[in-house]
Amino acid sequence: MRLYIRPEAPNAVKVLVFLAERGIEVETVDVATLSDEAFARASPLRQVPALDTGTGLTITESLTICQYLDALADRPSLFGDTVEARTRVAMWERRAELMLFDVCIEYGHHTQPIFAGRLAQFPDWAKAHAAKAAPMLALMETQLGAEPFLAGPSFSMADITAFLGIGGLALWGALPAPPGPAVARWMAELGARPSMAPLQALADQFRPRPAHEAG
Ligand SMILES: N[C@@H](CCC(=O)N[C@@H](CS)C(=O)NCC(=O)O)C(=O)O
Fold first, then answer.
1. Which residues are CB-neighbours of 55 under 8 A, at least 6 positions away?
2. Residue-level pLDDT at 203
3. What is the distance in A from the centroid of ligand 1 to the CA of 127?
4. pLDDT over 70 at 210, yes or no
5. Which of 168, 47, 48 is nearest to 101 (CA)?
6. Whose CA is closest to 99, among 109, 110, 107?
7. Where does 83-198 sit in CATH, by number?
8. What pLDDT does residue 102 have?
9. Contacts of 148 (CB under 8 A, 6+ apart)
10. pTM for this structure?
11. Under 8 Å CB-to-CB from 156, ≥6 apart: which residues?
12. pLDDT surpasses 50 at 18
């Protein structure tokens, strides 16, 4: 099995955090070390992450990669071990994707200088779009006031997706409202988990650099 990544790509980081949480080891290849042809062979859409399962199957959706590896590993699952737990995780993960993670990706694409020239940027649209996170933040505040994690008593895939999204929006000062106390508590606890270490490479590329380091 081989996982193709870029260490600073959010969807790849999502899988790296999942692997660290689950204690799963997979051979990892940074696609920056590959030729264009080899990258196209590894990932038909030339996107990361891509998992070559070694069984003739290549998976190129980050969540599907996590689901596949989770299903092969022992319990407890990060996707829930009962019908009810699976349903709660799926619902919160989908909300996190649509209202935080995707919003964060779009915000980055449309506002960060690193993407200028590669994409047509509409910063005003991105700022307006970030308002989509507001109802999710309010819902999370209620949920995390009652439960330790989004899907209930156990850490799950929903927490990973939501933390990446909210963390990115917070880094850019793009959260539509400051996190309430319950969300702030959850953010501090998740940020301290060793599994979140891969987030550093992602955050570093967007952190403003001191003048003496800027090239
Ligand atoms: N839906 C895919 C999205 C993958 C994706 O957009 N990956 C980005 C990096 S985070 C990428 O490879 N972008 C390069 C490109 O699209 O050319 C997933 O969840 O894995």
1. none
2. 83
3. 21
4. no
5. 168
6. 107
7. 1.20.1050.10
8. 97
9. 186
10. 0.95
11. 78, 79, 80, 88, 89, 92, 93, 149, 150
12. yes
Say if 2-72 and 83-198 have the same CATH topology. no
Q: Is 50 helix (H, G, I), strand (E, B) or coil?
A: strand
User: What kind of fold does domain 2-72 have according to CATH?
Assistant: Glutaredoxin (3.40.30)
Q: What percent of the chain clears pLDDT 90, i.e. is strictly above it?
A: 90
Distance between Cα 21 and ligand 1 center (Å):
22
pLDDT digits (tens, 9 = 90+) for 97-106: 999 999 999 9
Q: Which ligand 1 atom is the nearest neighbour of the CA of 65?
A: 20
Q: Which atom of ligand 1 is nearest to the CA of 105?
A: 10
Q: What is the mean pLDDT of residues 164-192?
A: 96
Query: What distances in angstroms separate CA 141 from CA 37, 74, 91, one per listed residue?
Result: 46, 31, 16
| Mean pLDDT of the residues in the chain | 94
- Report d(CA 111, CA 105) in Å as an integer: 10
Delimit the domains of the chain by residue range.
2-72, 83-198
Neighbours of 156 (CB within 10 A): 26
11 Cβ closer than 6 Å to some ligand 1 atom: yes
| Residues paired with 3 in a beta bridge | 28, 51
* Cis peptide leading into residue 49 (ω within 30°): yes
